[in-house]
Amino acid sequence: MSPKTVESHRANIMDKLNIHNLPELTKYAIRAGLTSLDN
Questions:
Q1: Residue 29 and residue 36 in contact, taking contact as beta carbons nearer than 8 Å
Q2: Radius of gyration of the chain from Cα atoms?
Q3: For 4-24, how does the pLDDT look when each residue is reduced to its tens digit (9 = 90+)?
Q4: Distances in Å between the alpha carbon of 32 and those of 8, 16, 26, 38?
């Protein structure tokens, strides 16, 4: 998968979740249990 493809998918996810920056996306992922600070 190319970096541009990853950026495009990430932008689509962020748009659907109404998230505007990567720190917000990270916070969402932690709160949703998708990742943790221990990883």
A1: no
A2: 11
A3: 999 999 999 999 999 999 999
A4: 22, 15, 10, 15
Distances (CA, A) of 9 to 17, 23, 37, 39: 12, 17, 23, 22
Question: Rounded to two decimals, what is the model's pTM?
Answer: 0.77
Residue 19: in which H helix or E strand, if any?
none
Could you give the C-alpha distances from 4 to 20, 31, 37, in angstroms and in order?
A: 18, 27, 26
The secondary element (H helix, E strand) that includes residue 34 is none
- Distance from CA of residue 29 to its chain's centroid? 7
